[in-house]
Every structure is written in structure tokens, then in C-alpha cells.
Write a structure and sequence with these properties.
With 504 residues, this protein is mostly helical. The chain contains 21 helices and two strands. The protein is globular.
């Protein structure tokens, strides 16, 4: 009852216009960044992160939730209209939605994408409200050896997710860990890995890594593209829509099945809980499952069904709630966006974990409410009000857009620490991330390695201290054994047992 009351209080806080306006602002920002190909909700939060220094923590968090929910949904806009997914998680939506757009049924595709995103977001946020308080009790049972094994499990899964190239995932993760170890030793007042440069004693700030990884590298990637590449197919897909065309028809919803929406939302939520998986894996698995269960799998990728859009977008937005569970209760981000939200918490002096969920739940509850309201109200409202104008987002001048992003990124990296060194580290990190992306290295692995690496080292050394130097403590503690066994299980299902992949 105490948790229920806390969640209800979160909704009451959100009713305050001075709080709700930040949800709305965040949603608009997230929708813009999500709809713009190459930009993501993670980049949006990275850019507004310096602003949170001067804001109340509740306003900062609810704004991030608006960005998060809108960013995952809005990637479907350009996926459907110009066959350019706004984010990797919208690839399956492009496969299903663009043929409909070419046949003049773009409004139908956009409407069902918004409806599915709404269902997924609502179910994901409700499950978050139900699961997060109970997961607190589980978190209290995990002691130091178990915490190391949990983070070890997360790091291994992050690598295993990149099934096509485990080596590149491992290299990117270890590079992130290496970056995180630069500076003062965690347990002794000794500088390490500074290579004779005294300025490295202060270490590399999380803000610099976030901005470099997402903003600077994206600017470098986009600078290589010609105007013709960017504006490809925009003119030929400029169809006229009426607002009523965006409302999903009941017969289409009934054909997909209400239970199918719930199943896809559950898939998205629980994959979101898995560290490092994110919306891409959720939408892919839900899409594969939809094909497996469909009576007419041959219709996928044609204009005869919208089941694929419903599956991918429902799972995609359900990830929001799931990814927040490990971040809030264990301090382990579920995806790149929650990794940056973790940065918002840390920057504001909040440490995710049992103490946050028990002693400062009044700060967390408005986040849950903001996620729920963004899905239930703002997604359908936005597609109804401005759906006919969505295509215009892709017509903005990219030169001006990326010049603004570059300026905000550099200034933001300085303002966050008032350190010229950290500003240069953002540039250096951006170049490294750019090289990674050019060579198909997963930059999310790099970022999560940077965040989780120092935590893993901390718990490893504490565990060894408790075990008097013997590593057997990690193989005798029940909580540690559980996560080590879980690591082996995930290795089996992700690597040894091959998943079913649709023929697309």
C-alpha cells in the first residue's frame, strides 16, 4: 500500500502545470530527435544533460522520460515515410511501413505505429510500477560478491548481444572499461594510467564520454554524407493526409488481436530488463514471433497486413519501462538512453539502488507517471495534431541542424565540469566513437563498459577483500552463483542455440 500511495503521489506531482510542462517539452524534443534519421533519444538527453544542472531533479527526470518515450516512438515516422529508420529499433517498422506509404496508405501505417507504441508504452510503464518496488527486496538480498557477478553478467550479455561480431563487441566493451579506469584509484589515493600526463589525474568525466560518443561521432558521420543521400526519396513520398486517416480502424486492431499486443509488450518489457539489449532486439524478436504465430506469414513486408508494425512498435516502446528496472534498482542501465538517465541521477547526487527506491521513492514516482502519461496521452495526441506534417521534419537543412548540435555539444561538455580538458576529451572520445562506428564496432558497448567497468572493479576488489584474497568467494556465495549460472544460460541461448530469423 505504501508503494501504491507513492505512485499515486507521483501522478499528483505531475498534475502540477510547472512539472507537466517539462514532460511536454521533453516529449517534443524526443519526437524531433527520434524522427530525424541519425538522431536518437540518447543524443537528445545527452544534449539537454547540461541544462539539468540548474533544474530541480524531478523536473529533470520527468523531462528525460518524455524524451525517452517520444524518441522510441518517433523513429517510426521516417521509417514509414521515407524508408529511413529514425533509430535501429525501427528497422522492422521500415520493412512493413514503407510499402504501405508507397501505396498511399502511409496514414494507416503511421496511425497503427502510434497506437502500438501507446499500448507498449502504457503496459511497459504499468509493469515498471508493479515490478520496481518488489525488485527492491531482491536487490537487498544481493551482497558484494553477487553484485560483482551481476555486473559481470551484464558485461557479458552486452558483448553477446552483438552476435554477428563478438570480437568487436568485446573490444568496444573493454575499451570503455579502460577509459573508466583512468584517474585516481578507487580504493587508494594513487593516480593510475595517466601515462605521464598529470591532467589525466582527474579522469574522464561521464558527460564528456556521453557527448563524444553520441553527438560528436554523429556529426562526423553525417558530415560524410552528400545532400543527395540525405534527401533521397523525400520528394516522391510527400503525400497528403487528413487527420482522421491516422485513427486505427477497429477491424484492423481486432485482426491483429488484443492478446498479441499484450504478448509483444511483455516481450519488449522483459528484453528491456536485460542489460544492453534495448529496443532493437525487442522489436526484432517480437517481429519474428509475430511471423511465427501468424496464419499468413507471407503477407509480412507487403501492403496486406500491419501485424509487423504492431509487433515491432509495441515491443519497442515497452522497452522503456523494462530498461528502467535494472537502472533504478541495481544501477545497471538497460540500454543507451537509460545509461544517460543514470548519468542524470548521478550528476544530481542520487545513487541508484535499494536506498534510492526506499528512501527517495518520491523522486522516482513522478518518472513512472511521466512515462505512463507520455504513452497514453502524448503519443496519440501528437500523431492526431501534427501527423500530416511529420514528413516536413526530414526536409530541414542538415547543415544548419548539425552546426547547432556541434555548438551545443561542445559548450555542454565544458559547462558540465567547467573544464577545458573535459571539453577536449569529448572531442577525442567522439573521434574514437566515429572510428568505432565506421568499422562497425558497437558504441553502446563502449559506453556501458565505461559506466559498468569501474563498478565491476569496485565490487571485485571488495569481494576479494572479504574473501581474504581468494576468488572462491564468488563461487560459494548463493547470489553470486545465481548470476554466474545465469551468464552461462544466456551464453547458451544467445550463442549456441541459434534464434529463428525471418527471411527478410
Amino acid at each position: 500500500m505504501e508503494n501504491i500511495q507513492g505512485i499515486l503521489d507521483g501522478f499528483v506531482v505531475l498534475l502540477n502545470p510547472s512539472i507537466f510542462i517539462y514532460v511536454l517539452i521533453g516529449f517534443i524534443i524526443g519526437e524531433f530527435f527520434g524522427a530525424m534519421p541519425g538522431l536518437t533519444s540518447a543524443l537528445a538527453i545527452a544534449l539537454i544533460l547540461p541544462i539539468t544542472y540548474s533544474m530541480d531533479i524531478v523536473r529533470s527526470l520527468v523531462m528525460c522520460m518524455g524524451v525517452y518515450m517520444a524518441g522510441l516512438y518517433a523513429g517510426s515516422i521516417t521509417a514509414i515515410t521515407i524508408n529511413i529508420p529514425g533509430a535501429p529499433s525501427n528497422v522492422m517498422t521500415a520493412i512493413e511501413g514503407y510499402p504501405l506509404m508507397q501505396k498511399g496508405q502511409g496514414a494507416k501505417a503511421l496511425g497503427h505505429a502510434a497506437f502500438a507504441s501507446m499500448i507498449g508504452g502504457v503496459i511497459g510503464s504499468v509493469l515498471l510500477m508493479l515490478v520496481a518496488p518488489f525488485s527492491l527486496k531482491l536487490a537487498l538480498l544481493i551482497r558484494t560478491p553477487g553484485k560483482f557477478s551481476l555486473i559481470f553478467f551484464a558485461l557479458v550479455v552486452i558483448i553477446l548481444i552483438n552476435r554477428k561480431s563478438l570480437a568487436k563487441g568485446a573490444i568496444a566493451t573493454f575499451m570503455g572499461i579502460m577509459f573508466g579506469t583512468i584517474g585516481i584509484d578507487l580504493m587508494k589515493p594513487v593516480a593510475r594510467f595517466i601515462f605521464g600526463f598529470d591532467v589525466l589525474v582527474e579522469g574522464i568525466d561521464l558527460m564528456a564520454v556521453i557527448i563524444g560518443t553520441f553527438a560528436i561521432s554523429e556529426i562526423l558521420i553525417q558530415a560524410e554524407k552528400s545532400h543527395e543521400e540525405v534527401s533521397l526519396k523525400i520528394d516522391e513520398t510527400r503525400h497528403k493526409f487528413k487527420r482522421s486517416d491516422f485513427t486505427p480502424k477497429w477491424k484492423d486492431i481486432k485482426e491483429i488481436g488484443i492478446l498479441a499486443y499484450f504478448k509483444n509488450a511483455l516481450i519488449g518489457f522483459f528484453i528491456g530488463v536485460l542489460p544492453g539489449a534495448g529496443g532493437s532486439m525487442a522489436s526484432f524478436i517480437a517481429y519474428s514471433e509475430a511471423i511465427r504465430c501468424s496464419k499468413h506469414p507471407e503477407r509480412f513486408g507487403t501492403t496486406e497486413t500491419i501485424e509487423g508494425i504492431a509487433a515491432a512498435e509495441t515491443a519497442n516502446n515497452a522497452v522503456c519501462g523494462g530498461a528502467l528496472v535494472p537502472m533504478l534498482t541495481f544501477g545497471i542501465p538497460g540500454d543507451a538512453t537509460t545509461a544517460i538517465v543514470l548519468g542524470v541521477l548521478i550528476i544530481n547526487g542520487l545513487q541508484p539502488g535499494p536506498q534510492l527506491m526506499s528512501n527517495q521513492f518520491h523522486l522516482v514516482a513522478p518518472m513512472f507517471a511521466a512515462l505512463f502519461v507520455s504513452a497514453l496521452i502524448l503519443i496519440p495526441l501528437s500523431v492526431y495534431l501534427i501527423g500530416p506534417y511529420f514528413i516536413r521534419i526530414a526536409l530541414l537543412d542538415r547543415g544548419i541542424l548539425y552546426a547547432i548540435i556541434a555548438t551545443v555539444a561542445i559548450v555542454g561538455s565544458y559547462v558540465s565540469t567547467f573544464s577545458v580538458f573535459q571539453m577536449f576529451m569529448a572531442l577525442i572520445t567522439g573521434v574514437i566513437a566515429y572510428i568505432f562506428r565506421k568499422n562497425k564496432f558497437p558504441i553502446v558497448c563502449f559506453l556501458l563498459g565505461f559506466i559498468l567497468g569501474p563498478m565491476a572493479e569496485d565490487y571485485l576488489r571488495r569481494g576479494l577483500s572479504l574473501g581474504h584474497g581468494s576468488p572462491m568467494i564468488f563461487f560459494t556465495s548463493p547470489d553470486s552463483i545465481f548470476f554466474l549460472v545465469l551468464t552461462v544460460i544466456f551464453y547458451y541461448f544467445l550463442i549456441i542455440k541459434k534464434p529463428v530469423i525471418p527471411n527478410k
